[in-house]
Design brief:
Chain lengths: 173, 119, 354
């Protein structure tokens, strides 16, 4: 009887300690799963910023005027086209109240429906030399309507009035 | 076992108490983590900017006198590049020649959006 | 015997407790540094500011929030209308940031929390709007405290809509070719009217982002090179400027004057400047004009009227002298042809919450 009772406190202590440690382990493991959700927030901020910039570049400054974005797309990959669109897009993205937000990078693509009816995507700006494809990028898009084929585009692009999709890959270097 | 000493059970009870407290803490922490996650995911998953852009593209299509090629472009490129099934019709309303009734449907698998708007 | 057993059990328990307790702060610290909630609140605040015109707003209410008393404001949004997200109205922006960096800002931190940030916790905030002007300079507006580390943040790119201005330019080299010039001015008073026809201005086919709406934006009228209109005198006496509203669809009701006191200090309602002098004149200036007149009629004044699509508002410049001192006459329409509208300006709105 005495021997039995002699071990009880130790047993209860071990049991209590095990319960607490197990709980703590479960708590830590469950919450640490959710912290991965944090990465969504920078994505959301970047996507919102990119969408805003494209939308504002597509808003003409004067009533009835042509928007900046349409002007760039009309030039295709030529001078005043894709590369300038990329520069202007990044300039707008980097703008803030203090120093510019310099480590943003972007690459511009254009999707169009070809003569054959399939959808083709082509690079509108010159490729970013540091782009590896492993970056955590967001893709923002904007519809543009053209009355004719932009300059310096692949041969399978149609020449009649058409809607094309400007796609911008945006990432933080 | 007839004469079991139950003096030590308060230690187990305290352990349980701490465990329960920890669980509540975990519950609260998870909730607050969920707030940020759901907000960001909600914004990312609900294609507000895409739908707005699509609307303005449809309005541009009407302004450009409803070219059927443009309509096919929008439907085809939406499906191919945006993974969204889009269909829309724009008809002149019988009471005003400059007013169009636009019927817009958008479905990207997560979000379904239908709208009838006069433009 | 019993005490040794108790000691062992209790020690194991205490050790486990200490281990668990030491884990908890690490759990909480990771939560605090991520600032998840702050980002969500910043996003929400940004959406309210950029995509919403606020409440009360036109056309449901006579006066939008930027004109009413603080206790009537429900929500502060800067957008021109709900159909034009990201296009902000300059008058709303001015009100929002009014004296925000000075001693006595118009909106207190409680107001900002109540009308834009919302939420149960008294969040700290910092709003900044960096406007890029066409000449390459930047105009920065700011409200709130300096940023601490670990704040929630959102950046929105927007356009700012600024009011247009109607400029009437006299031709000094050959005065008779000036607009609204007459060789036979009427006697004894000479009137020049600027007419705001709301059925033209509020034309639904014009996008709200480019619309001239005197109910929400100031009306600017400037007459320069007034020398061209002088009738062999060194100046003309501007007796009064009157504002009258009438409705052509309701012929029985005559023109009604704007119901506000004609004191010269009411710069909230209007400003009248003559010859580029720094002082403001009342609408009954009885002052000599020799080179230019500049009038700004603010929305606070125009909104005192119930103005709708049928209204016409006449701004009448009344010169009174015998023999006539000026050759100006006629009616200048304040419309989409005569008003020089300002181009939309790109700007960046940043919201930080902590």
């Amino acid at each position: 009887m005495v021997n039995n009772a002699g071990q009880l406190y130790t047993m209860e202590g071990v049991a209590a300690g095990l319960i607490m440690l197990l709980t703590a382990y479960i708590v830590v493991s469950t919450t640490s799963i959710y912290t991965t959700g944090d990465t969504h927030i920078p994505d959301m901020q970047l996507e919102q910023l990119g969408s805003d910039v494209l939308a504002m570049m597509d808003t003409p400054d004067i009533d009835g005027g042509t928007s900046e974005l349409v002007g760039f797309v009309k030039k295709g990959t030529g001078i005043g086209g894709g590369n300038d669109l990329q520069d202007e897009f990044l300039a707008n993205c980097k703008m803030r109240s203090g120093d510019p937000d310099d480590n943003l990078r972007a690459q511009v693509y254009l999707s169009y429906r070809t003569l054959g009816g399939s959808v083709n995507t082509t690079l509108l700006s010159s490729p970013d030399p540091w782009f590896t494809g492993r970056e955590n990028t967001v893709r923002v898009t904007r519809w543009v309507q053209l009355s004719q084929q932009p300059g310096d585009m692949p041969g399978d692009m149609r020449t009649d009035p058409q809607a094309v999709l400007v796609e911008v890959l945006l990432w933080r270097a | 076992m007839a004469c079991m000493n139950e003096d030590g059970q308060w230690i187990v009870l305290m352990g349980l108490l701490v465990a329960v407290a920890l669980f509540f803490l975990a519950l609260i922490i998870n909730q607050s983590a969920l707030v940020g996650q759901t907000t960001a995911e909600g914004v990312l998953e609900f294609p507000k900017n895409d739908i707005r852009d699509l609307r303005s593209a449809v309005f541009d299509y009407i302004d450009a006198s409803c070219d059927s090629g443009v309509k096919e472009d929008i439907v085809a490129i939406s499906l191919e590049r945006k993974n969204a099934v889009v269909s829309f019709t724009a008809d002149v309303t019988p009471w005003d020649n400059n007013l169009y009734m636009v019927d817009l449907h958008y479905n990207n698998g997560v979000t379904v959006y239908n709208e009838t708007v006069y433009y | 015997m019993l005490s040794l057993d108790f000691l062992a059990g209790f020690t194991i328990f205490m050790l486990a407790l200490i281990m668990v307790v030491s884990m908890v702060p690490g759990l909480l610290a990771g939560l605090q540094s991520s600032g998840i909630d702050y980002d969500a609140v910043a996003y929400r605040t940004g959406v309210i500011l950029v995509e919403d015109p606020g409440w009360p707003a036109y056309p449901q209410f006579e006066q939008p929030w930027e004109l009413v008393d603080k206790d009537k404001i429900q929500r502060m949004g800067l957008a021109v209308s709900k159909d034009t997200p990201n296009v902000l109205l300059s008058t709303k922006v001015e009100r929002f940031f009014q004296n925000s960096t000075k001693e006595n800002p118009f909106f207190t931190p409680e107001d900002y929390r109540k009308f834009v940030i919302f939420g149960d916790i008294p969040y700290s905030y910092n709003f900044s709007l960096n406007i890029s002007h066409p000449d390459g300079t930047y105009g920065l507006k700011q409200a709130g405290d300096p940023l601490p580390p670990g704040y929630g943040y959102i950046r929105r790119v927007v356009k700012i809509k600024e009011p247009g201005v109607a400029v009437i330019v006299g031709n000094t080299t050959s005065p008779s070719e000036s607009p609204y010039w007459t060789s036979s001015p009427t006697m004894p008073t000479q009137n020049f009217t600027v007419r705001l026809n709301f059925s033209q201005l509020l034309n639904q086919s014009i996008n709200t982002a480019y619309r001239i709406d005197p109910r929400t934006e100031p009306v600017n009228v400037t007459i320069t090179n007034f020398e061209a209109y002088l009738n062999d005198t060194s100046g003309a006496t501007l007796k009064s400027v009157t504002f009258r509203k009438w409705d052509p669809t309701r012929p029985g009701i005559g023109p009604a004057p704007i119901p506000f006191s004609y004191g010269k200090d009411d710069t909230d309602y209007y400003t009248l400047c003559i010859d580029g002098k720094p002082e403001f004149y009342s609408p009954e200036p009885n002052a000599q004009v020799s080179s230019n007149i500049s009038l700004v009629l603010k929305p606070a004044a125009t909104s005192l009227f119930p103005l709708d699509q049928n209204s016409i508002l006449d701004i009448k410049f009344n010169f009174d002298h015998d023999p006539p001192e000026t050759n100006i006459t006629g009616t200048h329409l304040y419309d989409y042809v005569n008003v020089t509208r300002t181009d939309l300006k790109t700007a960046v709105l940043e919201v930080a919450i902590w």
